[in-house]
Design a protein that fits this description.
Distance between the termini: 42 Å
Helix content: 25-40%
CATH class of the largest domain: Alpha Beta
Strand content: 15-25%
Mean pLDDT: 89
CATH topology of the largest domain: Rossmann fold
Largest sheet: 9 strands, mixed
CATH architecture of the largest domain: 3-Layer(aba) Sandwich
Low-confidence stretches: 523-587
Number of helices: 20
Structural class: alpha/beta
Radius of gyration: 24 Å
Number of strands: 20
Strand order of the largest sheet: 5-4-16-15-14-6-7-13-20
């Protein structure tokens, strides 16, 4: 008999789909999208549609393994869990005794988006005081910094409101490849008469289907955004009332910066002709509720965070942030108001040594006092995904580096491990996910038991915590108890969530009121130095980005004072505008800080 179980996808994807898993005789035989979920709308992506094959793949690691060949060869022998854990604890304790906990680097990243299966591993390494990974510099750190500088650490527009838009812009966002469940909503907006514009350098699948594709030169998005603002000001298309009520610093931007971003100059920088720039600016300025879906790709270049920042200011210039169907969306994660500190920071030092995610290889090869002597990797494959993979692999090949990898498969990174532990997939354990591209949260139900001897990340973190003598409650609490603590610290309606109701139901939507974009930038009295805003090449700031709870700050509207050759500007002197507090730490292999997840 086939049983259908509703669960949720925990992959690193903004859609975070609700799924229906068909199970027969203890095996997943089919995965499909949940037709009752408004965003999933009954279809899953090509990857997830075949995940029954992934779960039951003959290539799964089903038992702990110990290396018997050279690092990188991938030759291992099976051992038992007790033997593997004993060896890990003995090695780690010896390193702690000689070098302290900084000799261990915990590397748990985003392949599993579960609040528990990701969070408990982070909590383990936080409690130990180990060297921490500045996670995300390979992906979204610069983009987040840019958005936070413009709007604060808040979620953007609800993607479901795009159906109310009369102009949709995908700026650096290949929706059909990376955000496919937003595509039907865009199509509904187009059916209602909204033009669909794509701005990106390459001819992506999404660009091919756009009403208009503007091919902008790589790294010049900030100049394009400032050029649009120049025309909006020149032609009287700004919402002066909104600018007066909800923004800080626009007068200086208008006076000192925008005059230098005239159409001719912007065309030379961006490759977008003056005529096309004029057309785009007029489309945007005259639209009732224009919606910008921001992608993170534009942030992955020098000063890329400034590009995201500039684009995120556009809805403030026209007042689109105050209209249903208008505004901008980069991510939604902070909009849920969850506070994972109880799980991710149960104890341990507030600040410790940090390793820049993008420079893992250099950290493994160059750090001293102490060097990294042990590495734990879960939910990622850094031998492939980290920049400068050749250096990363040289670091992983160090004979004196004790490496543990927890993975469902013998990944490229696992081939360099001393101990490989079999990991459960998201379909094999309970958890909670919250989307970073929609405003839905859902309980992830275990669909089948873990294959072979696989353990979930959460179970492994708790067992290691117990064996290492950590007394924090998270290492002995069950799933429901952990989730209750997660909701207890929430600064949103999530604080009222009942775990039993969440287990019994489907996805829960916790979206802000449409047409009332909140902001969480610092106060207008705080005017930090320009260097406090990190460039795209900088590590994620090491200081806290919290803002006072329950207070909605206005965003600043400001831009850099001088463009570089690639048109991503830098401010050279203190600005008369409001900025988010930032660390001015220089980019590097390691630094001291609180770390990030």
């Amino acid at each position: 008999m086939i049983q259908t179980i509703r669960t949720a996808c925990a992959h690193d994807c903004p859609d975070q789909c609700s799924l229906l898993a068909s199970v027969e005789n203890g095996r997943v035989v089919k995965i499909q999208g949940d037709p009752e979920h408004p965003m999933t709308a009954g279809f899953a992506c090509a990857k997830v549609n075949r995940e029954h094959e992934w779960v039951h793949s003959p290539e799964r690691v089903l038992t702990p393994l110990r290396r018997v060949g050279a690092k990188g060869e991938g030759r291992f022998e099976p051992i038992g869990w007790s033997q593997a854990l004993d060896e890990i604890v003995v090695q780690w304790k010896a390193i702690f005794a000689s070098d302290g906990p900084l000799g261990l680097l915990g590397y748990a990243y985003s392949a599993h988006q579960g609040q528990l299966n990701r969070g408990l591993l982070l909590g383990l390494f936080h409690a130990l005081g180990a060297t921490r990974l500045q996670a995300g510099t390979v992906c979204d750190s610069a983009a987040e910094a840019g958005w936070d500088a413009a709007c604060g650490s808040v979620g953007g527009a609800d993607p479901e409101t795009v159906t109310e838009s009369d102009l949709v812009i995908a700026w650096g966002a290949d929706l059909l490849t990376t955000n496919v469940h937003m595509w039907p909503l865009v199509e509904r907006a187009r059916a209602g008469g909204a033009p669909f514009v794509v701005i990106e350098p390459r001819r992506s699948r999404t660009a091919e289907r756009a009403d208009w594709h503007l091919q902008v030169n790589v790294g010049t998005d900030a100049a394009l955004a400032l050029g649009i603002m120049h025309i909006l000001v020149r032609d009287g298309l700004c919402d002066r009332g909104y600018l007066e009520r909800e923004t800080v610093g626009f007068s200086r931007l208008e006076r000192e910066v925008l005059p230098r971003f005239d159409p001719a100059r912007v065309a030379r920088i961006t490759g977008v002709s003056p005529a096309d720039l004029e057309r785009l600016a007029h489309m945007y300025g005259r639209a009732r509720a224009p919606f910008i879906r921001l992608g993170e790709g534009m942030s992955r270049c020098v000063n890329g965070g400034q590009a995201v920042r500039a684009v995120a200011l556009l809805p403030g210039v026209t007042g689109a942030y105050a209209r249903v169907g208008g505004g901008a969306l980069l991510m939604t994660a902070t909009g849920f108001g969850l506070d994972p500190a109880f799980i991710r920071k149960p104890s341990g030092p507030a600040r410790t040594r940090l390793v820049n995610h993008s420079r893992l290889g250099r950290a493994l090869l160059e750090l001293t006092d102490p060097p990294i002597r042990a590495l734990f990797v879960a939910a990622n494959n850094p031998a492939v995904t980290c920049p400068d993979s050749a250096t990363a692999r040289r670091g992983l090949a160090r004979k004196d580096l004790f490496t543990v990898v927890h993975d469902p498969f013998l990944s490229d990174t696992a081939r360099y491990a001393d101990i490989v532990l079999p990991a459960a997939t998201y379909l094999e354990s309970d958890d909670l996910v919250r989307s970073y591209g929609t405003y839905y949260m859902q309980f992830v139900r275990q669909v089948v038991p873990p294959q072979g001897e696989a353990w979930s990340n959460a179970r492994l973190a708790q067992e290691l915590g117990r064996r290492l003598g950590l007394a924090d409650p998270i290492f002995s609490m069950d799933t429901d108890g952990l989730l209750r603590e997660l909701f207890r610290g929430a600064r949103s309606p999530a604080a009222e969530m009942d775990v039993k109701d969440l287990r019994a139901g489907g996805a829960v939507k916790l979206a802000p009121e449409p047409g009332h974009q909140r902001f969480a930038t610092p106060s207008g009295t705080n005017v930090p130095r320009p260097s406090a805003f990190p460039s795209a090449s900088s590590p994620r700031p090491a200081i806290s980005r919290r803002t006072p709870r329950g207070r909605a700050w206005p965003p600043f509207v400001a831009a850099p004072a001088s463009p570089s050759a690639c048109s991503i500007p830098r401010m050279r002197r203190p600005a008369d505008c409001e900025m988010a507090r930032r660390s001015s730490s220089k980019a590097g292999t390691a630094q001291s800080g609180s770390g990030s997840a």
